[in-house]
Amino acid sequence: MSDAERARKLRRRQMHERQAVIFGVLMAFLALAFATAAAIYTGNLELPWAKKDFLVAPTPTITRIPAPCPPVGALPVAANQITVNVYNGAGITGLARTTAATLTERGFVVATTANAISSYTGTARISFGYAGVAQAYTIAAQIDDAELLIDGRVDASVDVTLGEAFLALRAAENVTLDPAVPLVGAPGCVRFESLAPAPTSTPTVDPAAPPAAG
After folding, report:
1. Taking a C-beta distance cutoff of 8 angstroms, is the pair 124, 96 a contact?
2. 142 with 164: CB under 8 angstroms?
3. Which of 65, 71, 141, 200 has the least CB density, counted as fewest CB within 10 Å?
4. pLDDT by residue (tens digit) across 38-54?
5. Residue 44: CB partners within 8 Å, gap ≥ 6?
6. pTM
7. Exposure of 35 in the CB half-sphere (CA atoms within 13 A)
8. What is each CA distance from 29 to 25, 32, 36, 185, in whole angstroms?
């Protein structure tokens, strides 16, 4: 065998050895990566950057303002002084229309009858602003298990969203409101004065008074 052939054979052997080392390192790395991934997946190994707390977005907390109790001494409001909007959140054809007709028969002023933007699974949701607390409680006396929800409206109107559990208004003879007896707050209600925004007043300026010193 010539020197050239021996050199070629040596180079081939060295190349095969290098390839064997490279393949061995790659296989060991893959085996280690697989074992690590399996340990993390099964919870046997935790890495600071791989904790589930960091991988799962936190669930936002929904804060709902509690319903206010009626102001101290507040009496039921006469039906013909209450403007109510009736919305169908149950998807039952004609539910808002027939309920609005009954409220009208009882003297309430129905301004709007329409489908709700989204469905509601409860009995009924009564939405109102701080100016309509007594009106909302007067409406709530007409409905069993109604939910009271305060919102940011500034007028005294009341929205009634009928839900999937709604069957009908309470029978008129079972509405026990006494016009001379103050309204009773719903269970868990919060004192009205602690929730209602403080009234604002504009200072009166006397145009004849001299300007204040700056």
Report:
1. no
2. no
3. 200
4. 655 555 555 554 444 43
5. none
6. 0.62
7. 6
8. 6, 5, 10, 69
